[in-house]
């Protein structure tokens, strides 16, 4: 995978998730950050920092991005969410427009 085909998402604790750009584009918020016509750092470097999203939540969000792509291509599987993460995941999903 080429660097321009990936996006780095950084959690509150500084953990870095390098994911395929197509997966990140599942999020309308990330899509807007990466495709903006302005000279924003996210657009130029392909790095997005989420100082208010914990690592465990951002990891689950990344898993959801890939699951969403698979689901859209016809691979219908269940996406499991641990009950104790539900509230934080809903808030992150709302912010990310996913």
From TrEMBL:
GO biological process, one term: ubiquitin-dependent protein catabolic process
Location of this chain's protein in the cell: Nucleus
Chief location: nucleus
Pathway(s): Protein modification; protein ubiquitination
Residue intervals of the SKP1 component POZ domain: 6-66
Keyword flag Nucleus: yes
One cellular-component annotation, GO: nucleus
Gene3D superfamilies per record: Potassium Channel Kv1.1, Chain A
InterPro entries linked to this entry: ELC1, SKP1-like, SKP1/BTB/POZ_sf, Skp1_comp_POZ
Keyword terms, alphabetized: Nucleus
Family affiliation: Belongs to the SKP1 family.
Protein name: Elongin-C
